[in-house]
Design a protein that fits this description.
By secondary structure, the chain is an alpha/beta fold. The chain has two domains: 146 residues, ATPase, nucleotide binding domain (Nucleotidyltransferase, domain 5, 2-Layer Sandwich); 174 residues, 2-Layer Sandwich (Nucleotidyltransferase, domain 5). Helix content is 41%, strand content 19%. Strands 10-9-6-7-8-11 form a six-stranded mixed beta sheet, sandwiched between helices. Strands 3-2-1-4-5 form a five-stranded mixed beta sheet, sandwiched between helices. The C terminus is likely disordered. Bound molecules: 5'-O-[(R)-(carboxyoxy)(hydroxy)phosphoryl]adenosine and zinc ion.
């Protein structure tokens, strides 16, 4: 598709607009709402109001960076879900009105499919087939990506998402929000092995076809970290132990994420792994996964500004799907629980069919 595709992202606490074309990101503006920091988490009403006041400026910035105007646009994509409904509605209504007024093709995009496309924006080789590990504040998914739009869910979290665990443990340790970068920073000066925390859903006895083989669970690790923090606090040693606890927590998460990804690539006939989502900007995670994959598999990871929430990844999905002729109706609504398009859940297939899915 020639021309620029506009993407809009307002599902959580980043207000973002971007224009992309076949060469990648041409303009990208992201306003991170820091008003939430004081509350230790995202306040939905504050998020929606901030999107409303910031979105126009983000679109203007993205177009200016691309040295383009709306006449250069060939379509509009917007995150339609999942996310906070009030926040999503701001973007969906803005994009719908804009596209309708300018006679542009319009598409609602699934936020996690955006994360799946993010790496491909700056890395032309990050295209299917591959195994993808998507790790964000709301989701943890291991996906077998056969083609764009053809996805098999191998594993997902049973409770907290990986990013959510980083945020909760950071809060318990008195670190700032979002917790991921804070934990990474604190852990860098932590002593390896001083504390050891559990690796949930990771046992050498797991076998392909077991319900636990690819699934994740982080709430128990969160509780174990909180109990350790409580003990250290009682002994008056928490402040000095924060880097060591952060290190132990981060190592536990990385071990689980890396091992589950290795299980997937070893079982499937793929040569590449694509990372996505905010947690994928964690440097020790990238390093360890890259080392484990060695020269047998290639690791593709988005640069940090495209790993966390941004509108370029939404524009990338829109560009692909609009180019294939897909359109959303003008009646499109924001859907906080939007289903991932083209995703089939093969997790427990072996139990139901007694036939291996691999
Ligand atoms: O993908 P994202 O920007 O938003 C959602 O879709 O949720 O992910 C945000 C999550 C937060 O939980 C944040 O703590 C985490 O990504 N995160 C990190 C790092 N940077 C962001 N987690 C670990 N290490 C990081 N460097
Ligand atoms: Zn996200």
């Amino acid at each position: 598709m020639s021309g620029l595709t506009l993407g809009i992202e307002t599902s959580c606490d980043e207000t973002s607009a971007s224009v992309v074309d076949e060469t990648g990101v041409r303009g990208l503006a992201i306003a991170s709402q820091d008003a939430h920091a004081a509350f230790g988490g995202v306040v939905p009403e504050i998020a929606a109001r901030a999107h409303l006041t910031t979105l126009d400026a983000m679109v203007a910035h993205a177009l200016a960076e691309a040295e383009a105007s709306h006449v250069d646009l060939n379509g509009v994509g917007v995150t339609a879900g999942p996310g906070l409904v009030g926040a999503l509605l701001v973007g969906v209504n803005w994009a719908k009105a804009f596209a309708f007024a300018r006679g542009l093709p319009f598409l609602g995009v699934h936020h996690m499919e955006g994360h799946l496309f993010a790496a491909s924006l700056e890395d032309p080789a990050a295209v299917p087939p591959f195994v993808s590990l998507l790790v964000s504040g709301g989701h943890t998914m291991l996906i077998d990506v056969r083609a764009w739009g053809e996805y098999r869910l191998l594993g997902a979290t049973r409770d907290d998402a990986a990013g959510e665990a980083f945020d909760k443990v950071a809060r318990r340790l008195g670190l700032g929000y979002p917790g991921g970068p804070e934990i990474q920073r604190a852990a860098a000066s932590g002593v390896a092995g001083r504390y050891v925390l559990p690796r949930p859903m990771l046992s050498s006895a797991d076998r392909p076809g077991d319900a636990e083989y690819f699934d994740f669970s982080f709430s128990g690790l969160n509780t174990a970290s909180a109990i350790l923090a409580e003990e250290l606090e009682r002994e008056g040693r928490l402040a000095e132990a924060v880097p060591d606890v952060a290190h132990a927590f981060q190592e536990a998460v990385i071990d689980v994420l890396v091992e589950k990804t290795m299980r997937a690539v070893e079982l499937l006939d793929v040569r590449a792994v694509v990372l996505g989502g905010g947690v994928s900007s964690n440097a020790p995670l990238r390093d360890r996964l890259s080392r484990r994959l060695g020269s047998t598999w290639t690791l593709h990871a988005p640069p940090p500004r495209l790993a966390t929430d941004n509108a370029a990844m939404i524009a990338a999905v829109a560009r692909h799907r609009l180019g294939a002729g897909e359109r959303s109706p003008w009646s499109l609504n924001a859907d906080p629980a939007l289903a991932f398009p083209g995703l089939s859940d093969v997790r427990y297939a072996t139990h139901h069919t007694s036939q291996t899915v691999f």
